[in-house]
Amino acid sequence: MAWFRRVKSDSPGVDIPDTAAEPLMTAEGQPDSVLDFWSWWQRAGATEIAQALDEHDALRVVSLLSGELRRVHPGLRWELASGVAGSARALVVTPNGDPRLRPVARRWRRAAPPADELWCFSDTHLPAADLTERRVELAGESFDVSQARVAASIDGDQVDVQIYHPGLDGLDRRSRRELCALVIDSVIGEAAVDTWIRYIDASSHVDGTMDLPSFRDLMDRLARSYPLTGSRRVWWVRRGIDLDGEFFVRRQQPMRSGARPDFDTHVRLVVPYPSDPDRFGFHDLDTSRRLTAFEQRLEETLGADGQLVATETRPGRRVMHCYADSGTDAPRRVGPVASAWPDGSVTCDETFDPAWEAVSHLG
Question: pLDDT at position 137, please?
């Protein structure tokens, strides 16, 4: 269970900016403020926080952590929770539902020291190890998570869920939705919610629902069916027609920023190719092979620091959408690959886009 939690962004007295600026980076690829936080943590912070917890001094815990994390970014949210994998406590720092802050939280976590017997670190809310003991706090009340049941509707790589809980009665609509979100976070964790869950709502009916372990197993099976990396990724293809004519879209499943919060930069390539009049201006088989080989070289060049997530093919050109980690040189590695394309000049541009808005029209 959570011991202390920073107030949410819609609470009074918390100044959350409307936009999330791209953080200043050091030569090591981390924001200066992130490195400053971990320097403070290892120098004095961990000891001071542990001492304040032992003395049950919640105000000092809040003052210390909120002050230091505000320097990383004022929009981040933190909580202290039970640890995992042998650690007594977990320090969890999240983007508070703002996808623009996911790369900030992810770089904070990646710069963390190794977990030990006292502390582990996460940039997403962790699933509860034991759902029978999990309680969540909301509107001054405590709710037993294990009393919840879930109805799930799967649509490819996306899941719509409805939550039944006896404690929903008497809550207003906003609190009902918040309790549902807290329950789902507890069952599968925030990272899985951001990756797979499309819609969450409350239900007043227990009929047609499953218990929480069954829902967790269902989500585990779904995740195994849609790998996020590697050659076994699943691709969705559709044909469309608009005012500009016929086109084909190919995108990976899932294609959501929550799956890879470190990939915060959109790299767009417009690749020309010879039109085949016998194929209504689209490419012939040889050109198709060259385009496929080009995409493979892109992925090899990006390596673990980025990936191709979608393509749009029209007569005479293919637009390739990649996302990469701006904390590395991955976006700049694309240039030499683009310049080697034999069938014309490739247009390449990059945009800071941690919410993956540039490909939202392909969903």
Answer: 84
Determine the pLDDT at residue 3. Answer: 39
Output phi, psi for 172, to 5 deg: -75, 170
What is the helix, strand, coil percentage profile of the chain, to 5? 40, 30, 35
Q: Which residues share a beta bridge with 242?
A: 245
- Are 22 and 77 in a shared domain? yes
Strand order, beta sheet including 158-164? 149-155, 158-164, 197-203
The candidate with the shortest Cα–Cα distance to 188, out of 163, 213, 224, is 213
Query: Contact at 8 Å (CB) between 201 and 180?
Result: yes
Provide mean pLDDT across the span 221-225. 95
Q: Cα 136 from chain centroid?
A: 22
- Return the DSSP state at 128: P
Q: Which residues span the domain enclosing 37? A: 2-122
| Contacts for 27 with CB less than 8 Å, ≥ 6 apart | none
The model's pTM: 0.81
Same domain, 117 and 140: no
| CA 4, 63, 83, 56 torsion-angle sign | negative
Segment 352-360 shows an average pLDDT of 93
Statement to judge: residues 150 and 245 lie in one domain: no
d(CA 335, CA 160): 40
Kindly report the CATH number assigned to the domain that includes residue 195: 3.30.300
